[in-house]
Structure formats: C-alpha cells, structure tokens
UniProtKB/TrEMBL annotation:
Name of the protein in its database record: DnaJ homolog subfamily C member 16
Domain of life, source organism: Eukaryota
Matching SMART domains: DnaJ
Organism: Cyprinus carpio
Classification via InterPro entries: DnaJ_C16_autophagy_reg, DnaJ_domain, DnaJ_domain_CS, DNAJC16_TRX, J_dom_sf, Thioredoxin-like_sf, Thioredoxin_domain
Keywords: Autophagy, Glycoprotein, Membrane, Signal, Transmembrane, Transmembrane helix
GO cellular component: endoplasmic reticulum membrane
Lineage: Eukaryota, Metazoa, Chordata, Craniata, Vertebrata
Length: 784
C-alpha cells in the first residue's frame, strides 16, 4: 500500500503540472515584431515607420473600441521600439526573442534553467508585471522628439516627466499615484512624459536623470527635480510651483480700474476671471502661462467683500465661473464666457480668438508676423491697414478716429494696426520716403514673403480723422479687396524694433534669481550626482581666485623686498680693501655694470614707468666728479649686478640742478635734521644751492618711494657717518668743525660705504621716503 500511495501522489503532481504548464510548453508562440507590423526582415526604417503610423492610427484605443485594441496598440508600439533602433533590432535578429519582449507574448515558458538557477513564470506567483500600460506608452519620449517638440512647447506649458525602466520594481509603488495625477493634470493642459532610461539613455543623461524612479518638471527649457514623497497633492503643488510668480494678478474693487486701463502700456487685452476660490485655480494659471505673450490675466475672488463692487459693476452670476475679456473699451467687455464646468478647450478657444486688440500697436517683429501674415497660395489674402502716427497730444484725436473706424470693421481679410514713428523709425522711413509724406498717414500693405518684401500704397489725402477721410479710406479698401494690383509700390521692410527690449535686464535678474533659488533647493537634498558639475565649476573658480590672490601677494612681497643675495664672504667693513669689496655677494652674470644716464628721453622708461618690483639705483654727480665717481660706483655695485630687479643710472646735477631740490621738497622726512646747528641753518638759508654730489638714490618708480645714501667724509667716518638716513640722526657737528672737514673732502672716498648700504637695500631694511609724484627733469614742481 505504501508504494501505491507514492505512485498516486506522483500522478496527481504530474497532472497538476501539466494542467498548469502544458499549454505553455506545447504552444508558446514567440512575440515577433516583424509579424506584428507586417514587414519583412529586410524592411527599411522608412517602411517600418510608415507601417507603424498606419497601424497606430488604426488600433489607437481612442478610435478603435474593439476589446483587443489596447493590447494590439501596445504590441505595435513595442514592435516599433525594437525595430526603429538599429542596435535592438540587430540583437533581436541574432538572438531571437529577448527578455524585454516576453511580457508581450501571449504565453511564456513556465520555468527554465538560467545561470544555474530556476526562472519562474511571474504569473504563477502572481508577481506584479513591470511592463508599461497604455498610459505610459502614449507618453513615451524619444530624444529627437524631446529636442524638436517638447522643449519648444515647454515655453507654453509645463511638463511632468517620469523616469522609469523595464525592470524598475520600485516604480510599481508609484504607478497608482502617477495614473491619478496624469488623469487630473493632463486635461488642465500639463504635458506628460515618460522616459525609459534603458532605451533612452541619451535623453536621460540630457535631463540629468541617473536613477529610477525619478520625477522632474520642465518649463521654459529648465529642468527641476521633484524631491518630495510621491503623493498626488504634492505632485500638483510641484507643477504649480514651476509656474512663474504673478502670472495672474489678484484684482479687487480698488485695483480693477487700474488693471483694465493699463492695456495701452502693455499693448495687450485684459481678461478678468471670476470664481469663488481663495486660491487661483491651476487651470487659470496654466492658461495665463500659455498666453502670457498676448493677454494679461486678472482674478477676482467673488467670496470676498473687497470684490463686491466689481462683481456688481459687471453683473456677474456668482453661481458659475465667468471670464470677461476687455480690449480698448474698458467699460464693456469684448467677449464673455460663463460655465459651471470651465474646460480647457473652451478657455483656449475664447482667449485665442481674442488675443489681439482691435487696433494693436506694432511693438516687435513677432506681433507684425502674426497680425499681417505672409501671403500664401492656398489661403485667403490678408491686407494690413497701418496708421503711422505719433505719441503727442496733437495725435490723440487722429488716433481715436482711426480706432473708431477699425472697430466697425467686420471683414476678416483686413487687419488694423498702428505704429509710432519715433519707436519704429526705419519702418516708417521705408514706407513714407517715396511720396515724401509726414504722419499721420494710413498705409495699405500686403506681405509677399518672409524676407520683408511688401506691396503697399499710401491712402491719398492723408489722415486727419474727418468724415471725408473715413469715406475715402472705405472706398480705397473696397478697391483693394476687388483688385490686389491696387497696391502699386513695393519695398523691403526692415525688421521691427523690439519696444520692450528695455525690460531685458529685469528678465535677466529674474532668471538669475530662479537659478540661484534652484541651486539652493537642490543643495538641500541628496541629489549630489546632478550637482557635481555645478559644484566642480564653483570650486574651480574659487581655486583660480585664491590662487591669483596668493600669487599676487607673493609678487607684492617680492616687489617690496628684493630677494636677498647670499654673500660668499663676510660683509665688508669701512676699512676693507677695494679688492675685498667686490666679492661680498654672489658672482654677477656679467663682467661689467651697465650704467645709463637719466635724461629727458630715458627718464620715463627708467623711472616713471619702471616695472613693478624693479628698483633703479641712481648716482648723483657733476661734470667734474663724473669719471671718478662712476668708476667707484661701478666697483661698489658690481657684486650686485646679477640681480634682475636692479638697474643702475646716474644723474648729472649740472644739467638738471633743480631735480634733487624738487625731490627733497616732496619728501621732507628725507632731509637731515640733526647734523646742522642753528647757526648753520641761518647761513644756509642765504644760499639756495645744495651739494648733492655722491648721493645715491634707490628709486621704486611703481610705488613712488626712494631710499637715500649720503656720502661719507674721509678720516672722520667714526664720528659723523652720514652715509644713510638713520645714521644722520646720530651725528652732531659744530659749524666750525664741519667747515674745516669740508676742505679735506676727497671725492674718491664718498662712496666707501655704498656696499654696506646696498646689502641693507637687498634686505629691505632701509627707510623709505614716499613722494606723491616724481618731479620732472625740467621743472621744479612735481608733475601729476
């Protein structure tokens, strides 16, 4: 009995398995995209595309109400996705049925061996299917379609886009919310899109989407990611936040007249929307965004006491939403609609048919193209009646008479408009130059091509707004409608000036604010992968900025303090021999020292325009001491001639006697104060000439300062060393002693201590005397 029970159990299991999987194993037809589309395996892309469009129209569920239409449409769409992509088509031709196609097969294999594991049919375990439903299929975006259609359309309506993939099991959880949101927002005018990141990797990268599921918004060509919990209300608020602020102005009893009367400044009709809601409905905001270039929208909340007057003024029924459209006449609406269930199609038709004023002003080329379209072969002619006028008070009555004449026009072939001559000077000059007339003038014209060619004729007699002028214009319009050859002149019109171009700066500021706000918003969330390019750009800019600052700081330091030359021997003293003095610093690059004379020719280049960080060491001499001092000077500075920032010159005070006096007057702190007593100051006051022979100046032309070396007296160096500014305060001589020592002065030894002074110059420890400007060689007063 035990063996029999085992046998019966095996039979029962076999029957169950055959019942479950027998059909699948016996007849599991594979999904063949070629058979679905009815094309051969050698069909071209053009043939596939043509067949797909035909079948899609035939099996679209909105047109085909048969029970299997939706499934067939999904198969057709899936087949086209495979065959329209060369890579996927090649994979299918090589490997046959792919995993991504199995969802569309009518039956699948029960289980099979795959990478040493079992693959089970998901229907057996009741797994949710990840294949796209019909809602996603009809909203699929391709890269070329996105660039050519969706991106330009985002300037008229916002888009809500979902990023998904075939094997995104997480996407299953948001599908019910997504479906409900699409059903709510799409009828209002929100664009819906789905991007399969597996098939459209290029589009996903373009959008900056790198994970699934993701939801993003697109408006005015800018992408914004959704970061909140996927809830229907959150998605609705997200779409509403994408729209620009102040699209719809809230109007009350105190502001409705100002709102209606501002049509002239903006050159747009006004729409007042009446409804009982504290918040402006999303449908109104989307309509205002779609027609923002044509119409200005206002909203009146009929539930407020502050709006009772305007509701009574226009006799509004408070039980149904109402829309009033005003043009030039602000006392009476040009058109009205009222309906309990206000639909998008009704509002679009209402606004589109009234998007222009009765007599709009031509303010840009776009408006001119729409009001006066180019003549086309298979369409009825459109003639433009254009008034060329001015903005002054003398033109008010003339313009109003033209508006009254245009308001009585009922013929669609005639379009009335006007221009201000001052605002559109090139256009008016072209139209008026042949007959040499002045505004106001009425011109009849017809555009022949998009490049600007027109046929036109000026109405005879001009335009003053009288009854005779109106009668004459009416007769000529009738002649024009009977025979278009009535337009006798032709011309090439220039492109119209954009009269609202001055608002570009405000638009740029608003755009910059939007981008900064978006950057701050993204920074609050963990969307780092999308933020990495922006962060990289910011840190690169900061690195370059700080690097420039650091380099400049080192450059200034090198300018203020030249690099110290390391001596090869100990510093020389006053008693050291001349042979020892020349070896106190590093070996020079040259075997001689270049010393140039400061003249009126070399003065600017060698001092005033000296490079930053460079110093010119100038020796002061006379004709008599020139040869002796130059030899001594070259010997003392020879060891420093290897520095690239030091230059050497000499100034002959016999030629430019007043230059040193001017320099010392500009820097009073450079004058010695303790080496002369009171009697010597009184004696010197009688003489205007000072002896500067043997003085050496280190001039920094860029920063306008100098360091001063004063010559020494032979035999008395220890008692009154006058070789530098700071040592001058230590020396104090009586008048008789100074006069006696002056007779023993030897010119050759004036520069004995110049080597030590040069060492301190290289160290940057010498006092600096700043001047407001360098004096000229030929004048005493410093030149600014």
């Amino acid at each position: 009995m035990g063996g029999w029970s085992v046998f019966v159990s095996c039979c029962v299991w076999a029957i169950l398995l055959l019942a479950l999987f027998g059909d699948s194993l016996a007849s599991a037809p594979e999904f063949d995209p070629y058979n679905v589309l009815g094309v051969t395996r050698h069909a071209s892309q053009a043939e596939i595309k043509k067949v797909y469009k035909s079948l899609a129209r035939e099996w679209h569920p909105d047109k085909n109400k048969s029970p299997g239409a939706e499934d067939m449409f999904i198969k057709i769409t899936k087949s086209y996705e495979i065959l329209s992509n060369e890579e996927r088509r090649a994979n299918y031709d090589q490997f046959g049925q792919m995993d991504e196609n199995q969802n569309f097969a009518q039956a699948q294999q029960g289980f099979r061996h795959y990478h040493d594991s079992f693959y089970f049919d998901e229907s057996f375990f009741h797994f949710p299917r990840t294949s796209r439903d019909f809602t996603d299929s009809k909203h699929l975006f391709h890269y070329s379609q996105y660039i050519s259609e969706v991106l330009p359309d985002s300037f008229k309506r916002p888009y809500l886009i979902k990023i998904t993939s075939e094997w995104c099991f997480t996407c299953i959880h948001i599908e019910p919310v997504w479906k409900d949101t699409v059903q709510e927002l799409e009828p209002l005018g929100v664009g819906i899109g789905v991007v399969d990141i597996g098939y459209e990797r290029q589009l996903a990268n373009h959008l900056g989407a790198h994970r699934t599921p993701s939801i993003l918004g697109l408006i005015n060509g800018k992408v914004t990611f959704f970061h909140y919990a996927v809830v229907r209300e959150h998605l609705r608020q997200f779409v509403e936040s994408l729209l620009p602020q102040k699209l719809v102005e809230k109007v009350t009893d105190n502001s409705y007249l100002e709102f209606l009367n501002s049509w002239h400044e903006e050159n747009k009709p006004r729409v007042l929307m009446f409804d009982v809601a504290s918040n402006i409905p999303l449908l109104y905001k989307l309509t205002a965004f779609a027609y923002k270039d044509y119409v200005r929208f206002g909203y009146v909340d009929m539930g407020l006491t502050e709006t009772s007057k305007v509701v009574q003024r226009f006799n509004i029924n408070t039980y149904a939403p109402t829309m009033l459209l005003f043009k030039e006449n602000t006392d009476k609406p040009a058109d009205v609609i009222q309906a309990r269930g206000m639909k998008k199609q009704i509002i679009d038709e209402f606004v589109s048919n009234n998007r222009f004023l009765l007599v709009p002003r031509l303010v840009n080329q776009k408006l001119f193209d729409e009001l006066c379209p180019v003549k086309q072969i298979h369409r009825r002619r459109k003639f433009c009646v254009l008034l060329v006028t001015g903005e002054g008070e003398q033109f008010v009555s003339v313009n109003e008479a033209f508006f009254d004449f245009a308001s009585s026009n009922t013929k669609e072939v005639l379009r009335f408009a006007y221009v201000y001559q001052r605002q559109q000077q090139p256009l008016c000059d072209t139209l008026l130059k042949k007959e040499d007339t002045t505004p106001p003038q009425v011109i009849l014209l017809e555009r022949r091509n998009a490049t600007g060619r027109v046929f036109y004729r000026t109405v005879t007699g001009g335009w003053n707004g009288s009854d005779d002028d109106k009668h004459r214009l009416l007769e000529q319009l009738e002649l024009l409608q009977r025979d278009s050859s009535y337009l006798t002149h032709d011309a090439m019109l220039p492109e119209l000036n954009n009269e609202f171009a001055s608002m570009f700066l405000i638009q740029w500021i608003n755009t910059a604010y939007d981008y900064l706000a978006q950057f701050y918003f993204d920074l609050l969330y963990s969307n780092w992968r999308e933020m990495m390019p922006v962060l990289s750009l910011i840190f690169s800019a900061l690195f370059i900025l700080f690097g420039t600052v650091i380099i400049q700081a080192f450059s200034d330091a090198g300018e203020d303090k030249p690099a110290k030359q390391k001596p090869t021997q100990s510093p020389k003293t006053a008693e050291s021999s001349p042979g020892q003095e020349s070896t106190s610093s590093r070996p020079p690059k040259k075997s001689f020292v270049e010393v140039t004379e400061l003249t009126d020719i070399t003065y600017m280049s060698n001092l005033v325009r000296l490079k930053p960080g460079h110093i010119n060491v100038v020796l002061i001499l006379t004709d008599a001491s020139k040869q002796v001092l130059l030899r001594k000077f070259a010997k003392e500075v020879f060891s420093f001639s290897g520095s690239q920032t030091l230059h050497y010159s000499f100034l002959n005070v016999d030629k430019h006697s007043q230059w040193m006096d001017s320099l010392m007057e500009s820097a009073p702190d450079a004058r010695p104060s303790d080496c002369l007593d009171k009697e010597e100051e009184e004696e010197d006051s009688t003489s205007n000439k000072s002896d500067y022979t043997g003085h050496v100046l280190a001039l920094n032309g860029h920063k306008k300062y100098f360091c001063l070396f004063r010559p020494v007296f032979t035999g008395e160096e220890a008692e009154c060393s006058r070789w530098s500014d700071e040592d001058a305060s230590k020396a104090s001589r009586s008048r008789s002693s100074s006069r006696q020592k002056a007779t023993t002065l030897e010119i050759h030894h004036k520069l004995d201590r110049l080597g030590l002074w040069m060492e301190r110059l290289m160290e940057g420890t010498l006092p600096r005397h700043y001047v407001p400007a360098w004096p000229g060689l030929d004048t005493i007063t410093p030149q600014k």
